Amino acid sequence: MIYDFPGRILDYGQKGYLAPLNDMIDDDFKKDVSDSIWNQTKVNDDIVMYPINTTPFMMAVNKTLFEKIGALDLLPLDRPERTWTVAEYQKALEAVKEKAPDVFPSGFFAKNTGGDQGTRAYLANLAGTSFMDPDMKKISINSEDGVKALQWVVDGVKNKLVAPGTESLTSNDNLDLFMQGKLATTIIYSSVLKKIYSTKKVADFEEAFVAFPTPDGKNPAFEPFIGGMAVFNNGDKAKVEAAKKLVDFIANDPDWTKKNLKATGGFSVRSSVTGLYDDPEMKYVESMRKYMIDAPTRAKNFIELRTVWFPELQKALMGQATAKEALDSFAKKGDEIVNKN
Questions:
Q1: Are 177 and 150 in contact (CB under 8 A)?
Q2: How far apart are CA 62 and CA 205, in angstroms?
């Protein structure tokens, strides 16, 4: 058995390592979970990951810092869905640059595949476009708007709105800087990451979740964190069935299900299971699940696809390629990867 996210689990499934779990999914369960989640659990017609918990990958801001510099009104916290435009976002970053010069306004990272969902969603939202076409067979982030979004980040480094050295920073580096109070905003955050990183928070500040900025300030798109379990098909039917029973217990036991969900900091994949948390921030995040998208983690050969993403970002950030050249190069390589047998 394994508990993991779709990217790796679906790769195992595509290679034929996993036992189908179709017989564990009844009609009530199917109807209670969104299509965007079910799409992340299947290889062809076989469900190979039993989905358990989820949460949207979003952005977060250091609310205390913005209060301190008198710029809290530049954040969208008074809006029900906390959505904002790219122009409003840039204005908030400029305030940090001017009034808190010892803090990086925002961050980016491109050292390796870790946290790639953050960079994908950030650029796609800045561009108001998608990373891939709906059929997951063609890269679309290299559109004209996608190129403008990556150029915005490249220019942001030069203008000191984005932390320097992005080509050699990891997602963990960005999260560490945020937890140290040295980064005013983070492009990768979730209720699960908040739980995981709570012990690393060395600065005393209040964070707040916000939506990714979009050109018109509407309809953000969040890649979902989805945690689920898979059963390896080792040829022993008895062991496979025993493993499936344990999966069912972990996911559905009346006494342990909610305890297990809260332990992760996430929410149930079931639409009918809500209100696990009293915290206003968690209630807000839960309400934003409606903007979770069908993420490219279900694309064929995704594990390979993600390995050609960050080198192209690095080239653009280091000036070795223009934003257009970098994204066109990624699109060419990516299209070949997701369409090969």
A1: no
A2: 7
- Give every strand in the sheet of 207-210, ordered side by side: 185-189, 58-62, 207-210
91 residue type, one letter: K
**Whether this model's pTM surpasses 0.70:** yes
250, containing H or E segment: helix 237-252
Residues 79 and 116 grouped into a single domain: yes
For residue 286, how many other CB atoms are within 10 A of its CB?
A: 19
Indicate which CATH number applies to the domain containing 172: 3.40.190.10
Identify whether residues 180 and 207 lie together within a single domain.
yes
Three-state DSSP state, 110: coil
3-state secondary structure of 186: strand
Torsion of CA 172, 177, 180, 182, to 10 degrees: -170
- For residue 199, give the amino acid letter: T
Instruction: Please tell me the number of Cα atoms within 13 Å of 142 on its side-chain side.
Output: 19
User: 35: how many CB neighbours lie within 10 A of its CB?
Assistant: 9
Query: Of the candidates 204, 170, 212, 180, which has an alpha carbon nearest to the alpha carbon of residue 56?
Result: 212
278-318, pLDDT tens digit by residue? 999 999 999 999 999 999 999 999 999 999 999 999 999 99
Nearest to 184 by CA among 120, 89, 112, 110: 89
Nearest-angstrom CA–CA distance, 236 and 165: 50
Cα 293 from Cα 278, distance rounded (Å):
26
Tell whether the model's pLDDT for residue 217 goes beyond 90. Answer: yes
Q: 36 falls in which pLDDT band (50, 70, 90)?
A: confident
Average pLDDT in the 89-93 region?
98
Number of domains within the chain: 2
The dihedrals phi and psi of 53, each to the nearest 5 degrees, come to -130, 160
Amino acid residing at 211: A
Q: In whole angstroms, what is the distance from residue 129 CA to residue 132 CA?
A: 9
Rounded-to-integer distance, Cα 143 and Cα 131, Å: 9
Does 173 lie in the same domain as 31? no
